[in-house]
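Submission sheet (multi-component)
Chains listed below:
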Amino acid sequence: MNQLTLIDELLLDQQALTAVERFSQRHTQVTSPIQERFYKELLPLSAPKPGEQYGFEVDLEACSGCKACVSACNHLNGLDPEESWRDVGLLVGDRQGVATQQVVTTACHHCADPACANGCPTLAYEKDAKTGIVRHLDDQCMGCRYCELKCPYDVPKYNDRLGIVRKCDMCQSRLAEGEAPACVQACPNQAIRIRIVPQEGADAGVRLLPGTFDSGYTKPSTVYTNLDTSSDQMPADAESLHTGHGHFPLVWMLVMVPISVGISVAVWLGDSEDLTALIASVAIGCLGLAGSIMHLGRPTQAWRAILGWRRSWLSREIIAFNLWIGTMIAFLGSVWMDLPDVITSLLGVSAAALGVTGLFASVNVYADTRRSFWRFSQTMSRFFVTALSAGLLFSPAPFLTVVPIVLLLGMEASILFEPDETEQRPHDLMCGPLRTTTWLRFLTALAFVGLATSEFTSPWVTLFLLVLTELAARSLFFRAVDEAKMPGI
Amino acid sequence: MMKAKLPTWRAFEGPLTEQLLREPGSFGLGQVPALVKPDATTTSVCGYCSTGCALNIHLREGEAVNLTPEAVYPVNIGMACPKGWEALEPLGASDRATTPMYRSSRDAPLKPISWPEAAQIFCDRMRNTLNNHGEESAAFLSTGQICTEEMALLGSFAKFGMGMRHGDGNTRQCMATSVMAYKQSFGFDAPPYTFADFEESNVIVLIGSNLCIAHPIMWQRVLKNKRSPEIIVIDPRTTETAAQATSHLPLRPKSDLTLFYGLAHLIIREGWVDQSYIDSHTSGFEAFAAHVKQFDPKTVATVSGISKEVIYQLAKSIGTKERVSLWWTMGVNQSYEATRTAQAIINLALMTGNIGRPGTGANSITGQCNAMGSRLFSNTTNLLGGHDFANPTHREKVAKTLGIDSARLPNGPSKAYDQIIDGIERGDTRALWMIATNGVHSWGNRERMRRLMAKLDFLVVQDIYVSTDSAQMADLILPAAGWGEKEGTFINSERRVGVTKKVKRAPGEALADFHIFRYLAKTWGCGEWMDRWESPEAVFNILKELSREKPCDITGIGNYREIDDAGGRQWPCGEGEAHLEQSERRLFEDGHFYTKDKRAKFLFDDVQPNPEPTDDSFPFTLMTGRGTSAQWHTQTRTGKSGILRRLYPEDAYIEMHPTDAEATGLKANEQVWIRSRHGQATCRLVVTPTVGQGQLFMPMHYTETNRLTHPTMDPHSLQPSYKACAVRIRKLLGR
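Outcome: structure written.
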């Protein structure tokens, strides 16, 4: 006979699950959702007509900051443990000595002119014609994360496990069956509802809430009601310094590729017999582009990036640089094999044109996000200075290489010493959490200038310093950017 | 227009899309994630706070895979706060205790041992201590977080089996004041309300209670109130709840007792008292009326910082509106004169006849999921079932019910938490058994607490994690199963007994606290009387028997299945009184209280000076409290949920008014150094107008906070005063 000791019995009992047998089973015959009684009045009675769409409506007076909507989104949508498509932040203000505060719950605004969709190189976003819901096609996504930069509300979130971005779909399948989205179902205060809103969206200059991005950019469909306007409320985290994502593969690419373009143009313009410089240029270009592929969550899907060329600067950049690197290799081959001059020249001019086109697209990739730190003029200066410096280094007058970079340092120093209103956050970041990188940028830049103007003549050592200082600069470019997001905590 | 050509290039479906498919979930659930679609469901009462929400657990082959708030339950009505939604997440953490661990000396590392070894070590070392140093030398510190049956088993095993004299709980830090206030005023620890009272009031006064984030589902009930109630928040800070209120009185910290006496004075002066209620159902009113005469509006306005007009308006609302309910939480309870403050609130309700009717009451909102169970059945301050250790008749009744010799029952209550801890300093307490609480973090003056823990001969920590500040200091760790991995009952804030169920398998050799107590009792050799305590439900039947003829009578409450079917049952519920038709009930509808003369007592005292006054060296008053709805106590559990971690700042912070920041030259987000008379801490500065000038606020969830606080106790409840500590603050140098 088996004699179990008490501890064996207890350990066995601990593993036995008997709740189903021991307790009544409820609602086994119920087919419609019981929760419906709480959310029925929070949904529109009919579907949107042409020119209309669904939108979230949030009553700021009713929201009391319990944050159940954030967890409900996770649990009712089967998201990963840390993933939720809703966030909660806070607005605080001071009304003549009396504090005011309002909690803000926020998800995707299913914009009338969605920046995520407009920027997506793979067409992984779909704005539903009937409902206006901006849906992300997970299997179409290559994980480039450009939508994270494009969205001014910090909505699309990258999922490391899957290598793609995922976002709110307004529980599309639930709405289709007359059920409420997870967040609407879960709010104890009925602060979130679904409304039918006209699709024309907001005018420029209007903002969803204090401190949020100009609604004219994407025309968000969310409506916030009962905003307390009795005080100048600002996001509670307005003073917090969040550094932007470092994106090292992109930092790498955006230094190596311009350098490669610069050298190759210099070679083409000048002595096209400088095979060493040309080989170096092709190698640097390949290394740079390899970095950009490393950046993708699903590199095997990279081919899809050509689909978005009609609207996406990123798609255009990818197409341009792919054509460029191919032409560059052909150009190198033609110089190497000493092909007829007409072929070499044709390839040379094509490579130069494609390289410059690609760089122009790169500039627009960032300028198109509407961040002031990335505005066209400044980004153009940054990327083309890199190319110009590298090119001049291989020109007949290599000491001229210091001119563009000194001008650029002047622009950067003005952010450090006399920032204008739009440069305040980059200033605070560069002088605060990013000060080590800022120092690194300026010291290496000065070393570069010193070396380039000295008697020392090897362009390769000087080039190495250029790479270093530009990596620091590009790292600041990504991490010191002014953030665009909804109020946080 | 160009869409038609593109679909072949675009993947509308595929393996990634499938991960997020939703399907009808059956069981009245609506759509659920297809990957975790349940094959059965069952309800279970949440294990965080005293609201006692029912969670609908989605099961697959008997094991929980997901949950949603239960749509049909009289407490939460289809909703839950994020902690409830995330209740299953902390169970899967990597730092779960999965096997007993032991170290033979403090310097040695903890090593896994078997359960029989652990039980033998526990019994040998505890027995040695008790034999060599007496019944007062070993004690337990328990919790409001485990099931009632477990508390009763622990208290009975420790006191009647092992012969320990002392045990207390972390409930001392949250509810002791309410216990004492009710006991003295009403004759029994009996919160009189039901949650429906939130919906029935004309005036809701919230005192030191940030209901919106501390008890979000109770706030849901406030919003269901159809009477357009006046909602008055009395709190030094502009909390989330203050922002939602119809009026907010930002009184100076610890001026509450003065304010309430001042309100009483005005109500009497203006003739707004309910004299017939006072005459029929209370005692001691005349003396009280004489006492509050000195609290004229001018004095009260000066002390509290609230204008005379506002005080008058509040007095008028309380004195003249039909249904006034007064609710309080930690802002009142955690003070050096907390019991009298709570009783000042009770007095306001009594003198205006706002008790025993819908939408009225002097109502203490409880903290932990089973603080109410602990109040009745932990066998610490009270003898099991709301009995009195000092009363021979009570001892006889309990001994008889349990089948033991009444001589085994101590003839007085346990030492309180602070006395047990102070006893370590003196060498009186030598062995300590900490269960489901993290005292090294939560008790005030943390550095002293750490020193005292190190001084113990033997520290046993029974917890679900090995990583808590307390477990890290233990000699012996007993691995416990968590909420969801065991069954039993909780009693919520409105006296509702609800069932919590086992829906997950505990990791490794972790055992339900109930099983651990049972196994230790067997190893100890307690004798036959403990044989009846074989399962939680068997113990529940013993508890019912113990409650017979007490105010908390639950003899008519049915078994677990019946309680589950009824949506929980409120006490009292005597035999044959299963109020099936009535899901919510309040006390004192007949005006009879539990005192000998059935009258409620007016109790009061002189206002005491703050034992932690500010001065030139320590010019700021530091308050502590709940940070967000996503945080719980010392975060041993809430810190394990990725979703909850998104909802609060990761590192400690302190809040300061902008004017003070300017005056001290401090900037937002700077690291600051804070010093009190008891310790120091560093953290990030948040500048916000929601704290008053001269005040600072730190959430209690970070270990930094209790480096500063000092456990000054209320003399009646011995609850620590965490809400008013004098500090100074500087920029942290070298950053």
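Remark: The first strand of chain B starts at residue 22 and ends at 24.
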